[in-house]
Amino acid sequence: MTRWMASNLRLLLLAALLVEVSSDVSIDGAGVEEWAAAFGSELYELSLKYSGAEFIRQEYERRDDVHVERVNGIKVVQEMATKMENMLENKVLAVKKLRDKVEEAHEMYDYNPDIQFEYFNSNLVNTNTTGRNDRDLHLRKTFDLTPNEHFNDIPVNIINSTVQVAANVYNFGTEVLNGIAETEVLNEVFQENYERDPTLTWQYFGHNTGFFRNYPGIEWEPDSRGLDLYDCRKRGWYISSATSPKDVVILVDTSGSMTGSRHEVAKHTVNTIMSTLGDDDFFNVISFGDTTSFIRSCFNGTLVQANADNKNLIKQGLKQMPKPQKIADFELALVEAFELLESFQKKVRKFNNTGLGANCNQAIMLITDGAHETYEEVFDKYNEDRHVRVFTYLIGADIKDDPNVKWMSCNNKGYYTRIGAFADVEENASKYIHVLSRPMVIEQDHITVWTNVYMDTLVNEGLQLMTTVSQPVFNKKESNREQGILLGVAGVDVPVKELLKLTPAYKLGVNGYPFAITNNGYILYHPDLRPRDENGELKPNYNSVDLAEVELSDIDEQEYERTSLELVQNKLRTAMVDRETGYMNMTVRMHSKDMKRLHFRLNHYYYTDLAGTPFSLGIVLSDRAAGDSQLIGLETFTVPSGNGSEGAVGDLCLLKEGLENLFNDTEAAVLANWIYCNLNNTEGMTMTRPQALEKYLRLAMENSGYLSAKCDPELINHVIFDAKVTQPIVSYWEGIYEAPSRTDGVILSFVGTMGGLTRIFPNPYATQKSKFAEEFPNTIEEEYYQRAAETSTQKFIYSVPLQGQEDGYTADGSEYLVTASAPVLVTKDGKRSIAAAIGLQMLSDFLKDMFLETTTMHRQDCNSVAFDCELTCYNESVGCYLLDEHGYIVMSKEQQEIGMHFASLTEYARVFDRMLDTGVYVEIKQIDYQAMCQETVMHISAASHLLDPLISISTFLMGFTKQVILLLSQVGLYYSWEVSYAEGTVVTEEVISTPCDKEMTYYSANSDRLPQTSFIQKQCEDCKKSYSMDAVPHSNLILLIVDKDCTCDILRPKHLEPVKVEYNSSRWCQRLRTQVHRRRPEPCHSQHPLENSTDCGRGSWLCPSLPWILLMLLVKSILTYVSSRT
Fold first, then answer.
1. Neighbouring residues of 768: CB distance < 8 A, sequence distance ≥ 6
2. What is the share, in percent, of the chain residues with pLDDT greater than 70?
3. Coil, helix or strand for 48?
4. Per-residue pLDDT for 317 more than 50?
5. Is 60 exceeded by the pLDDT of residue 3?
6. What is the mean pLDDT of residues 16-27?
7. Which of 370, 601, 706, 995 has the fewest other C-beta atoms within 10 Å?
């Protein structure tokens, strides 16, 4: 009779006989210790046997062609940086070619006012006509598209580019058609760039009229709402290339005349202006009526960085802005703005080394529906040299041009524009950009700009993290030089995944990783950057996550402010922002990918700058399991000394053997999805990376051992050597599984190597199958390998899929699999390195039966069926658990509890609380700075004027009346009249997701406090709830036996879900106002003596007739009287 049959028979008999037991179970601590020792020994022997851990370790150590080398981190990071710099320089070269071609074409192009020109419109190609009056008929062309893996399988046309025209721009506008016609020459350059550098992805040119030429050509897809809101002129890459950094104060008129739709349009204008500001800009928003008020009181008296968090806070403040009232005091508002800029500039000079402020352009943006005068005295006092540009926005469809508002812009090197309604905002709010670009254009300085990381939204399919390199494109006609006309911006996208290809995992070892940051200290890429929330939506601040928010040192965060310079992570951050090359150690808290576990690691940080960019590159080598050392074996390929351009040369005998070991059994030998050889676009569409490796190794055999320069000889040497060393274990596994004493509960054995090779041997007699090869192909990047490397001792780490995880079940999904893994640590000449992780998978029921039987076999007073045993795990009054080092349940008699955290079980909440009190488990709090919270916000807005025609008419007449007042003030007939417009308001609630900090709770076992036997009596009903626990030797498991029958007062289980951190207002405000160290971009273009600022906006002033003035005054008086009586 097999062990499995015997154990199930016992369960059946026990259930049938319903053996009664005492309600007050006495748990013998000594017996539990005995069980833990016996079970640990048996489990370890089984794991050693079926994994072959000792066999494979000896295979590595017995070889004379193996040695261990200490990794030179500085050398590694500098080599990676050099490769990145070369790759990025190629992208800059591509942009320069686009820029030069457009400028050359514009100089030679003759403007055609009567132009008719057909082009491939990305919104209209391959679409059907809408009818006889289809004005876009000639743009609905057939356009060939083919899916291309290099572009995430998006259908593209690599022969032609397509043109997308912003929604508020006419497809056949004369300026647009001339621009499209003159940039047709870019198709040739696009193709040349792509042929020269096959790693290029999207190339494009954005024109100042609002069209966007993109290569390769695509069909443009609307967003999830069916809308196309893309306007290249509003994108960060365009704005950053067009302007230098700026300090901006936005003034919003909230006087009584800014009622109804004007108030809403003004808020929308502020939001649109804010959307054009980037991380290198600083700003604030002030509302004014008869007094001034900062939109966010926390930001009083300063400017803040225009990052996503601060802009989002201002947006929320705008939604709660009080309704308009009183008379606007322009002088007070302008003085406030000038003095704010002046005081902030003094602070910038004082703390110049911290990167505070833009320290370049300064601007005031005034949003109003009219001014009584020009306030020339204020401008003469504060802006005599016109170093502060003033941009004015006149709000209101019923308002004519205001010469006072226009004067403010035209006499202060700014721009004046009118915004009548919501539809006008997008086009007009950003007109200031081309004014700020004038000094740079006149100087003819083609600055190279790299953007912060962002999610590609060019198309809705295949979204990925990107950075863009771009350069401004100038009108170089000498006759236009003083006007400083920016034609547009040329750009090239660089997917983050292309950068990561240059930082291969095998060079960094297990638990090592690369990361990069910007001049602002924000993450360009990092394994803990989480741009999407739990619903898959992009977080609003995903591209302004700070390095100090993901590299968290092991320091109690309550002792320090997050921005404290005492924190080690801020020292690392400062060094990288300052573009230093160096090395640093830091003990950090690292959570797992699923945020379920927390690990403590000593990390070695190596960093350097990326020349020609604002970025700095860093790498981490882990200290655990000698992760900063590498095992080097016999090399199949050697690189010729001196000029290595010829490629590596291989030993044909070793190469032939390597091909056999790797590819004779492709099901049992799985290769990681790493880049062994770089593939061109055609190859990438027809073969996998492992298939490409086989192809190029066979080509090397045919070519006298010469390996293609497209391949990575170091990685290939690793994997060929690993294949050679691990080949014998296949025979070992065959013998184990064919032995008469085999165990069918173990269904698979595996070994994963540093070189990316995984050998798998399924139990041929097992009735269940595993999907291990499919779920865990990338060896050192998988959790089984990383957790095994966390221990430096010869023991196994046992894990099950936690609740909510999809991997780690049998192939049919019917049962949990227990995965056991251990590090293969090899010592040579006193140096040690991890060569592989080896292990097995077993059925969870098999592990349970194995443990239950252990509790019977080691009780002297038990018979063979355990009917007379009060204390065994067959007893229904006893709870039996195997917990892992973080408190998760690996084994339970109740299958539904597997993968849960023990702290979440209500009936044992007091037991876990006692474990915490006695130190068996330690509670650890960790702040997640990338969290999202649900919040309810109040919106205060004008009542719908569509619901009341009288209010709508009243608003129009009141607006016209104000124009009369302004006219009278100019001729001295208006003195003082306080206007207060009555207006209905609507208060609405909205539930939104906003960035926040959340406190995560983790638990870590302290084996020094084991064994432990105790009981709980105080909160229990006339009984003692006893329990006993001990560490299971050679594992990460803790055995727990607990009384189930004794009932205690309910104690709410530990809250394992993240909890929002509620900061007190002063601490939160101080955190928001604290400017962390940053480095300003260079150069700065704010003024130029040749600038011609006469083009400052257009408009006409219509003076109403006297009868109209009198009529409007009469109507206004009647409406005011009626309003006061109702």
1. 747, 810, 811, 812, 814, 815, 843
2. 86
3. helix
4. yes
5. no
6. 49
7. 706
Structure tokens at 220: 């443009």
What are the CA-CA distances from residue 270 to residues 312, 714, 852 (Å)?
12, 55, 68
Task: Report the half-sphere exposure of 767 (CA within 13 A, side-chain side).
Answer: 5
Rounded to a whole number, what is the distance in angstroms from the first to the last CA of the chain?
A: 95
Q: Is the peptide bond before 1104 cis (omega within 30 degrees of 0)?
A: no
- Measured in residues, the chain has a length of 1126
Q: What is the DSSP string of 50-86?
A: HHTHHHHHHHHHT-TT-EEEE--HHHHHHHHHHHHHH
Q: Any idea what DSSP says for residue 139? A: G
Cα–Cα distance for residue pair 183/165, rounded to 1 Å: 14
Q: How far, in Å, CA of 1069 to CA of 946, rounded?
A: 40
Closest CA to 265 of 427, 432, 398, 420: 420
Torsion of CA 165, 166, 171, 175, to 10 degrees: -90
Please state, in angstroms and rounded to a whole number, the distance separating the CA atoms of residues 576 and 862: 66
pLDDT value of residue 763:
94
Look at the block and give the residue holding tokens 């409406």.
1119
Q: Is 899 helix (H, G, I), strand (E, B) or coil?
A: coil
Closest C-alpha to 721, from 651, 784, 641, 776: 651
Q: Which amino acid is at 1065?
A: S
Q: How far is CA 587 from CA 72, 351, 576, 590, 620, in A?
A: 20, 31, 18, 10, 12
Which residue matches tokens 């960790």?
926
- For the cut 60, the answer to whether the pLDDT of residue 263 exceeds it is yes
Query: Tell me, what's the pLDDT at 1049?
Result: 74
Report the alpha-carbon distance of residue 305 to residue 199 in Å, rounded. Answer: 34
In whole angstroms, what is the distance from residue 676 CA to residue 713 CA? Answer: 8
Q: Which tokens hold the place of 323?
A: 């309704």
Select from 1036, 1026, 1057 the least CA-distant residue to 911: 1026
Tell me the β-bridge partners of 809: 816
User: Hey, CA dihedral for 347, 350, 352, 354, is it positive or negative?
Assistant: negative
Q: Rg of the chain over CA atoms, in angstroms?
A: 35
* Nearest by Cα to 223 from 454, 455, 460, 423: 460
Residue type, 1059: V
DSSP string across 263-299? HHHHHHHHHHHHHT--TT-EEEEEEESSSEEESSGGG
Query: ∠ CA 795-801-807 to the nearest 5 degrees?
Result: 115
Phi, psi of 700 (to 5 degrees): -65, -40
Tell me the CB-side half-sphere exposure of residue 968, using CA atoms within 13 A: 15
Q: What is the DSSP letter of 850?
A: H
pLDDT tens column, 318-375: 988 888 988 999 999 999 999 999 999 998 888 777 788 999 999 999 999 999 999 9
**162-165 and 211-215 as β-strands: parallel, antiparallel, unpaired?**
antiparallel
**Rounded distance, CA 250 to CA 391, Å?**
9
Hunting for tokens 């296949």 — which residue is that?
730
Alpha carbon separation from 890 to 104, 451, 661, 1040 (Å, rounded): 69, 46, 36, 11
Report the pLDDT value the prediction gives residue 136, as an integer from 0 to 100.
86
CA 60: distance to chain centroid? Answer: 40
Token code pair at residue 483: 């006007």
Lowest mean pLDDT among 418-422, 615-619, 661-665: 661-665
Which residues are registered as beta bridge partners of 986?
941
Count of beta carbons in the 10 Å neighbourhood of residue 326: 16
Q: What mean pLDDT value characterizes the chain?
A: 85
